MULE transposase domain-containing protein (Dipteronia sinensis), 117 residues
Amino acid sequence: MVVSSKDHMGQLLTAIGVDQNNQMYPVAYAMVESECREIWLWFLELLGTYLELNNSHGTVLITDKQKGLIYVIGEMFPHSEHQYCVKYFYNNFKASHKGLMLKELMWGAAKSTVKQG
């Protein structure tokens, strides 16, 4: 998310949690000048320490496809499950596949669950 004000323009990094009632809540945020590998490393090191994600087993991280972030997650949380936000898939999808029906089918597929065998 790009944030701008009279005095500052930059990026707002956020970490959002989901509780047992499927409600979202803010865990951490930082205002930075830009997104890059070093900034993501700093932010995720602090987040990992705060949340005590020592081995990252059982942790699921959902992100956009920001390249610096993808690599840092692999380094910092090698045992976590990493998924991409459907919103970003849809933004790419709709460029080539227009129409309400395809939109509804894609979001329906994203919301469906598949039992692992």
Summary: The beta strands are 2-4, 9-18, 24-32, 60-63, 81-84. The mean pLDDT is 82. The helical segments are 37-51, 67-76, 86-96, 100-111.
